[in-house]
Design a protein that fits this description.
Helix content: over 70%
Distance between the termini: 22 Å
Structural class: mainly alpha
Strand content: under 5%
Shape: globular
Number of domains: 1
Order of helices and strands: HHHHHHHHHH
Largest sheet: none
Number of helices: 10
Length: about 260
């Protein structure tokens, strides 16, 4: 696909991905396939997407911090481990060939979808009173490392998993969980982007203009999430689930 047509195709999808990702995570379920459908190699598509989405995530993260819709101390601890996990995951991914990487996505995404469908925890209020500071730090570190590694290897659904983990394991309300997830996701995205860039798997000429649309989507989406909280974020999680399932169906059909 020629450069101009690639921009026309990817840019609006990058806006939508940023809008959804800034509130409920899962923007990679839109942006990663958008890059792959241009026909570029999977590693190059993944690395280029990491750059454009990272720039957009910076905006959303800044808005959550500005409006104090996150626990910065715990989120930073989690983000530091996420960066480490993301680098390890990305380096493992670079060892895989293109076809193996695509097959991994097809296997992983149904698991993501099933997890979200059958997740029983439906509580979205803050319930942190019974959790000690030490346990909070340990859980935040574990969450950060493993979700960061998942982000480095697979990607789509990372933000959604982070929100669920902060809400279910650390008992944050849904808005704060989303803010924490943004800080974690930013760290893992940047770490993965740097890893892919050093390996020559980032198309800067495409990633930079697409990033403008990602910024716009993240700015608007994070504003809705901050103002409306769970009333906005919860239906966004359901939309992400639908996108995950749609991508699985598409990938399975494409493999035939």
């Amino acid at each position: 696909m020629e450069y101009f047509y690639a921009l026309i195709y990817i840019c609006p999808l990058a806006f939508l991905a940023g809008f959804i990702d800034s509130s409920a995570g899962g923007g990679g379920t839109i942006s990663t396939p958008a890059y792959l459908l241009t026909g570029m190699p999977a590693h190059l598509a993944f690395g280029t997407n990491k750059m454009s989405s990272s720039i957009g995530t910076i905006v959303a993260t800044g808005r959550f911090i500005k409006h104090k819709a996150c626990d910065v101390r715990i989120a930073v601890i989690s983000a530091a481990l996420a960066a480490l996990g993301s680098v390890l995951g990305s380096r493992l991914l670079l060892l895989l060939d293109d076809r193996t990487f695509r097959i991994m996505l097809i296997i992983a995404l149904p698991c993501v979808a099933l997890f979200l469908v059958f997740r029983k925890n439906k509580t979205f209020e803050d319930r942190r009173e019974g959790i000690s500071a030490r346990r909070t730090i340990v859980l935040a570190s574990v969450i950060g490392f493993f979700i960061g590694m998942y982000d480095g290897i697979i990607g789509p659904g990372t933000g959604t998993f982070a929100i669920i983990a902060f809400n279910a394991a650390l008992k944050y309300d849904l808005k704060t969980a989303s803010g924490n997830a943004k800080i974690l996701n930013l760290a893992s995205n940047l770490a993965s982007f740097v890893t892919f860039a050093l390996a020559g798997n980032v198309l800067f000429a495409l990633a930079l203009p697409v990033a403008v649309f990602s910024i716009a989507g993240n700015y608007i989406g994070s504003g809705f999430a901050i103002k409306k909280g769970a009333k906005f974020i919860r239906p966004m999680l359901l939309i992400v689930l639908s996108l995950l399932l749609a991508k699985v169906v598409y990938d399975l059909m494409a493999m035939r």
